[in-house]
Amino acid sequence: MKSKILQKPGNSAGKHPGGGVTPAPVAEDSVHAETWLSAILDNVAEGILAVDASGRIRFMNKTAEKLTRWQQVDAKGLPWNEVVRLEKDSRGLPDHKLLRPREGELIPVSMKRVLIRDTSQADTGEAIILHDLTATERMAEERDAMRERLRQAQKLESLGQLAAGIAHEINNPAGFMIGNLELLKDDVEALASAYRELRALHPSGPHHAKKVKHGEDDALASIEQRWRMDRVLPGIGSLVEEALKGADRIRRIVGSLRGFSRLEQENFALVDIHEEIDKAIRLVWNDLRSRCELVRDFGVAGQIHANSSQIVQVFVNLLMNASQAIEHDRGKITIKTSSHGGYVCVEVSDNGIGILPELIDNIFDPFFTTKGIGIGTGVGLFIAYGIIKSHNGTINVKSKVGEGTTFTIRLPEGTSDEHQA
Prior knowledge:
By secondary structure, this protein is an alpha+beta fold. About 45% of the residues lie in helices and about 25% in strands.
């Protein structure tokens, strides 16, 4: 790469008071040119350092000072690689390096070195050009994050449709099972009543003992002993009750999944986010208070246009998840609210066991759970995601194993116009 030396346009000669033309003072013109060139370089977005043939710094522009945290007056005369300390970018990005400034964090940069030659083409030094890649990398990260959110949304939408279809297929046999169990429960109760009445007609006692003693066959006593009726009848009722509870749980799960694909805009109204959170806390307080400390860090947060029962369900799910993730006696759940950029933000954090990095991408999938058998169904966060999405919001999760998990919800602030509509 070749570079041209810019010269300031203007008169290079002055007039003698007597009318003759004389050369302008060379020193003064040189100072003006240097000042003018420095002003130009100080307004360049790249960091530029001029280095002599021995590799020592002779000039730094303002951007180079900002990047390296060195002032030109301190850096002048130092070897350039003592000021521009570069480390290899472990991510393996081409042409990317990490600049370690005099103080502060590493800065991603690209660097070019351009030889400086005089009029005789002899090397007199070089220009070190640093380009700050912070903004570029931030944009790339945001773009990648947006793509990942889109991928996640598309995946969950497909899973939601699949789950709703499966739930529809499960719903009919589940309904038959519940109906038959309820009939069986009634029949068992009728059978038990009939047995008790029949037994009353043949009570045990001295007369019964006399029959047995004389060899008379007591058929009822024989049946009781063979089928152990004293244990069977009481047990049948409890077995049917447990089966009904399990079937009802299936029905509720199926109902939630069927509702995922049709979260309608019914009963939407302006609600106060703090009131909705408090409703959820009251519903789960008995489970929370014995397990952990609950901290309300409520900021200034606006209203949202929402279905109150659905929003409460989201916070109930998050609070129960947080509570179940805490396995020590110093549990703490923090709910933090804020409002900015037209959005109400809610963070639900716990200091529980955290989520493994390899599992974090599946946390909103249906039937995915990190809990033990019988503790979780794996649909709570799936439903929460669907509800927040139907409210034009977002829900994200960050977690570190051994330190805890934070769910962040962003919902658009509501307006009176939406309420009237």
